[in-house]
Specification:
Elements lengths: L1 H33 L3 E4 L7 E3 L5 E24 L2 E8 L5 E9 L2 E8 L6 E12 L9 E6 L8 E4 L5 E2 L13 E2 L1 E7 L8 E9 L10 E8 L8 E7 L2 E8 L7 E6 L15 E8 L14 E7 L11 E9 L4 E2 L2 E7 L8 E11 L2 E8 L3 E2 L3 E2 L3 E7 L7 E3 L4 E5 L5 E7 L5 E12 L3 E10 L5 E11 L8 E2 L3 E8 L10 E10 L8 E6 L5 E6 L4 E6 L10 E2 L2
Antiparallel strand pairs: 1-12, 2-8, 3-6, 3-7, 3-8, 3-9, 3-12, 4-5, 4-7, 8-11, 9-10, 13-14, 14-17, 15-16, 15-18, 18-19, 20-35, 20-37, 21-34, 22-31, 22-36, 23-24, 23-35, 24-27, 25-26, 27-30, 28-33, 29-30, 31-32, 32-33, 36-39, 37-40, 38-39
């Protein structure tokens, strides 16, 4: 029995030791995999005096991340009164990786800003800075503290964004001081071999074969093929090495895809003006090198595109008339447009009278009347009103009115829209787009149509939601376009249809603002004409096999 007991105890101790060893190994593996957070500082913790710069100038410290690190928080030793300021993280070229306005509550001590949710990954040199936004006299004001004791670190910088200068190189009243600003950064290693990997997967033009005066949308499709989420980054679009536009994406999760719609404006798309010319179009993801990736070689996609302005055979489709508007202001809250349809179009072709294509809160949209509205699973449904926005496929961003329906597709880039059958006829109508409501996600803009022959009877189409943006970016963009389009032929190899429509008036911001200028342009289809009647203030669009272009493109008023 004693022998048996000693065997039991020995066996138990061995098992217990194995369990402890297993737990220690497991704990060691977990620690190695996750990595401990580390704080980097270039001060010794003693604050000799306070420092303050002028408005829109920052004090910054240069840090060096020894390997890929995700910033967890930034700390600033401050004292003084409550004040609105701005926190920055800059890359090695002093370009902005992150900024946030913060309200310093006042007092004295370390003020901490949590950046853990920003997924901000750095490697090598970067800067953390504190910028004062006000220039009011002191007091009241706040101060960033400085440590001048000990070894100078040559890490403190001063200046506006992109123009930081090393403090030791900046003359001061009491001579050049080797100052150490009291700014600290805490970051953690990015675990294992996990990396983001941003790739451009395609460039899709809408229309596929653009013609002179076409409104081109370039959809750049991107994907994070890595196994780590990516923080904010920019994507740039170049044509013939000229930058057309740059867009920012706040984040892209591992395995996720996104489509960025580049719509430009009348000046950035000047390359479209030359006939039958080939161009090289390049999309570059992470154009400012903000994301450290597993593979930097898949960040660009190049394609060739040509503009066409050849004689159009029977059966051809495409844009017809274009009028570009200038309301003399950058943004407005609503748009109302009065139109007249002078005759029923012939041929049974698909025609679109588009009221205003522009951007709301930076996202493209358009709306108007069609001769034949398509419905998924049904097909052609007859005359109606349509309204679409780009850069999403989520139908949660649609709110069709009763009798209407929502749709989404990627045929013209990712978009959602609402449609409704509406039996318009020759006569006068008013269409309006205006804010309908706002929620936590964004702003809802609705569309209404009014029939003059029925005492301006109102029909509500519904609303689409556009993403939230800062107040100074909210609203409908100026400088965009009304157009018509022949989008399909009922019978191929037949002439263009006869149709006459006019714009009788267009007004922004609840009819308080009229355009100060309007400019006409034509497509390659010759049987079209645009003219302005100063006696009535109407702009007429004509198309038909017997229409002669009597009025050149250019400024109408």
């Amino acid at each position: 029995m004693r022998s048996s007991g000693r065997v039991f105890v020995r066996t138990t101790l061995v098992r217990f030791a194995c369990l402890v060893l297993f737990l220690l190994i497991a704990l060691t593996c977990v620690c190695a995999a996750t990595g401990a957070s580390e704080e980097q500082s270039y001060d010794d913790g003693s604050s000799e005096f306070g420092f303050r710069a002028g408005a829109n100038v920052m004090g910054a410290v240069a840090f060096d991340a020894p390997a890929r690190r995700q910033i967890q928080r930034v700390k600033f030793f401050l004292s003084g009164e409550r004040e609105l300021s701005r926190v920055y993280v800059l890359d090695s070229s002093q370009r902005v990786l992150f900024s946030r306005d913060v309200s310093y509550p006042g007092g004295s001590g370390w003020f901490q800003v949590d950046l853990s949710s920003e997924k901000l990954v750095v490697q090598g040199r970067f800067y953390a800075g504190w910028m004062w936004l006000s220039s009011h006299p002191c007091p009241p004001c706040s101060w960033l503290h400085v440590d001048v004791s000990g070894v100078p670190r040559y890490r403190s910088y001063i200046g506006p964004v992109g123009q930081l200068s090393l403090v030791k190189d900046v003359p001061q009243e009491d001579g050049v001081r080797q100052e150490n600003y009291m700014i600290r950064v805490t970051f953690a290693p990015v675990g294992g071999d996990s990396w983001p990997d941003l790739a451009v997967t395609d460039i899709v033009l809408v229309p596929t074969h653009p013609e002179i005066e076409d409104r081109v949308t370039v959809n750049v499709r991107i994907r994070n093929v890595g196994d780590q989420d990516a923080g904010a980054f920019y994507t740039a679009l170049h044509v013939d090495a000229q930058l057309l536009e740059e867009k920012v994406l706040r984040a892209l999760s591992s395995g996720a895809s996104a489509t960025l719609a580049f719509t430009g404006n009348s000046s950035t798309w000047a390359w479209m003006e030359a006939c039958n010319r080939a161009h090289t179009m390049t999309a570059t993801i992470d154009s400012r090198n903000q994301v450290d990736e597993h593979n930097e070689g898949n960040n660009t996609w190049t394609t060739n595109v040509s503009t066409v302005c050849q004689e159009v055979p029977l059966g051809e489709t495409g844009g017809l008339h274009y009028v570009w508007w200038d309301f003399g202001m950058d943004l407005f809250t609503s748009l109302t447009i009065d139109v007249t349809i002078h005759n029923e179009p012939s041929n049974g072709d698909g025609l679109y009278f588009q009221m205003y294509q522009a951007e709301i809160n930076g996202v493209g949209f358009y709306f108007g009347l069609q001769t034949d509205v398509y419905r998924e699973g049904v097909g052609s449904t007859g005359k109606g009103v349509i309204y679409s926005r780009w850069e999403t496929l989520d139908l949660a961003n649609t709110a069709p009115a009763p009798g209407g329906w929502a749709s989404s597709a990627s045929t013209e880039g990712d978009f959602v829209g609402i449609r409704m059958n509406y039996a318009w006829h020759p006569g006068s109508y008013r269409l309006r787009i205006a804010p309908a409501s706002t929620d936590a996600v964004g702003d809802w803009y609705g569309v209404w149509i009014y029939d003059k022959s029925k005492g301006w009877a109102e029909t509500y189409l519904g609303a689409l939601r556009f993403p939230s943006v800062p107040q100074h970016q909210r609203g409908i963009k100026n400088g965009w376009v009304t157009w018509t389009e022949l989008y399909y032929k009922a019978i191929q190899q037949t002439p263009v249809p006869d149709w006459h429509v006019s714009i009788d008036g267009v007004y922004a911001s609840d009819a308080l603002i009229s355009p100060i200028a309007a400019t006409s342009r034509y497509s390659h289809i010759e049987q079209t004409d645009i003219y302005y009647d100063p006696a009535t203030g109407c702009i007429h669009f004509l198309v038909g096999p017997r229409v002669v272009r009597e009025h050149p493109a250019g400024q109408l008023f």
